[in-house]
Amino acid sequence: MNYYYENEMFKLEGISTEHTISDIDIYIGKGILKNTSSYIKKRNMGKRCLIVADGNTYLAAGKALAENFAHDGFAADVCLLRDRGEERIEADELSVGQVMMSLEPEPDFLIACGSGVINDITRFVSYTAKKPFVSVGTAASMDGYTSVTAPMIFNGKKVHRHGNAPKILVLDTEILKNAPKELTMAGFGDVYGKFIAKADWLLSNITTGEEVDGQALGLITQALEKLTRNVEEICSATDEGLKAIIEGLILAGITIFTTGQTRAVASVEHNQGHIWETRMLEARKPYPLHGTAVGCSTGYYLRMYEYFKKINIKNLDKEKAKNRILNRDSFRNKVVHCFGEEWLSVLEKSNKCLNLNEEDFERHYNSIVNNWDKIVKALDFLPTWDEYREIYKKFRQPIHAEDIGIPNDLLKHTLPYSTFYRDRYDFVFVMNILGIIEEITDMTLKDYQKEKQKWF
Ligand SMILES: [Zn+2]
Questions:
Q1: How far, in Å, from the CA of 361 to the mean position of ligand 1?
Q2: If 0-12 CB within 10 Å is exposed, 13-18 middle and 19+ buried, where does residue 68 land?
Q3: Which residue in 47, 102, 46 sits closest to 78, CA to CA?
Q4: Rounded distance, CA 327 to CA 70, Å?
Q5: Which of 50, 59, 91, 428 is deepest in the core (most CB within 10 A)?
Q6: Where exactly are the structural domains of the chain?
Q7: In angstroms, what is the span from residue 248 Cα to ligand 1's centroid?
């Protein structure tokens, strides 16, 4: 499946002629912010809106938007999310309360003017207050623009709430390229992580027969090719570079709609990012941006995939591997460091991979061994760790987890067990079955220790 543009509207071949996808109109282009009111008029969404922004996004796009609206006969109120000084604005009770209390005078629709958090707050309020919303992105930083779930913080804990997808999404590359570089690099990391997701999906297809959706896989492959072809352009933050990231993020979002799941876009690299976020939040410590965490996590897993491909499958100790994972108590003692007691107890209730019996073990183990050559061949497309480091070096972005605020101790425990975050088959699970995950984790961590970052 290919994509194309029709008057800045991002379109997929063979999908609805009316909308880009589902009910969403997606516009990507240079200098298109000023067209936002005409996009809205096309959808008959009414004339009164509430723009949700923070101090930075208001200056980046909200102000121009409000002026444009006034000129085009819209009534626009602004809800400026409260600045929290050193701390980041979060999608939590304070932000939601602020937006809810700004719903008077009653708007016909909302506008999320920003990226991750502002969109999450707005999609949640949009759903709760039954008001449609338009998203005007200010950074190419994450793949959730078209999402219908809102990751939020409630009572100091990460929760996922229902949300609406926007009716219209406007991504003006002129605005995106002025976003802080850290946000753009986060977007890059979020797309780059799809290499791991793709590899894990193909792996599962071979060993468990899990169905792979060819169209979704094709979209992700296109996104990755465009991304890696445009590293230079991204580095110089050109319109073309920004477009490569944003198209990747949008294509990823689209696969979630077309397949009804996140398989094509998220695997252990995302799991680990989510675990880091949750555990850091628990510890009341700051945590990295979603895409920054995913990009960093991807580096470690690319290195682990290199070791994975070199496993001498005929030389493994099957009995030892079996005892390791089937001895519930000792195995649990390892995994509990990754999730903490409370969280692990919840996961154990639903996650089949945490409740394996001997029969399951035999089935998984044998299928991996019997299909080994096929597996290794399917992983040919993966970039090397060297390539990854070269790119991050070019971007002058850290690759070590501790440099993005993740303690080494946490990293050591999340790398080998992130697979148990959800019931999904991936190469970390496979290495747990084969009984070699701790060994490969250690080798990877040693490689990272040796890798002194010279580009700071
Ligand atoms: Zn993501």
A1: 31
A2: middle
A3: 102
A4: 67
A5: 428
A6: 3-179, 183-213+263-450
A7: 11
Q: What is the pLDDT of residue 455?
A: 59
How big is the chain by its Cα radius of gyration, in Å?
A: 22
Closest CA to 98 of 117, 74, 85, 73: 117
Instruction: Tell me the CA–centroid distance for residue 192 and ligand 1, in Å.
Output: 10
Residue-wise pLDDT tens digits, 316-368: 999 999 999 999 999 999 999 999 999 999 999 989 899 999 999 999 999 99
The predicted structure's pLDDT at residue 273: 97
Kindly report the CATH class assigned to 3-179: alpha beta
For domain 183-213+263-450, the CATH class is: mainly alpha
Q: How far is the CA of 79 from the centre of ligand 1 (A)?
A: 27
Name residues of the chain where pLDDT drops below 50: none
Token digits for 362?
């035999």
Neighbours of ion ligand 1 (CB under 5 A): 143, 190
pLDDT digits (tens, 9 = 90+) for 136-167: 999 999 888 999 899 999 998 889 999 999 99
